[in-house]
Amino acid sequence: MYRSIVLSFTLCALLSPLCQADQVIREVPDTTAGKGYGALTGMMVGAAGGPIGALIGAGAGFFAGSSVQEASGKTDTAYEVRDAHGDISTVRSPNARFEVGQQVSRKGARLVASEE
Q: Residues 50-80: pLDDT tens digits?
């Protein structure tokens, strides 16, 4: 009886990281940098019209910056990831590349490939 309890506990401890791994669903373009620069530039240009102009300029720059980055082909990479609970979130990954269906884990705000 004692051996079966120890064996069950050991299997659960060793296999739990595999069960908790996140899975890459699809790759999506990431235009966060363009949105940031666009909002900042738009805010500075719109500030000539006062505080309301700065807000309107920041909003317009936000959308324009995203469009400019996408049109220039300078988009970064982000991935939609499904976690163990079935929740889907988008995670930026400018340096690492992953395949659709690959098991990954999160370290802070970044994805890391899971060892299989």
A: 999 999 999 999 999 989 988 898 888 888 8
Better-predicted residue by pLDDT, 106 or 16? 106
Q: How far apart are CA 37 and CA 80, in angstroms?
A: 24
- Tell me the pTM: 0.60
φ, ψ dihedrals at 92, nearest 5°: -75, 145
User: 27 falls in which pLDDT band (50, 70, 90)?
Assistant: confident
Task: Please write down the HEC assignment for all residues of 24-71.
Answer: EEEEEEECHHHHHHHHHHHHHHHHHHHHHHHHHHHHHHHHHHHHHHHH
- Tracing tokens 């791994």 back to the chain, one arrives at 21
Largest CA distance in the chain: 79
* β-pair type (103-107, 110-113): antiparallel
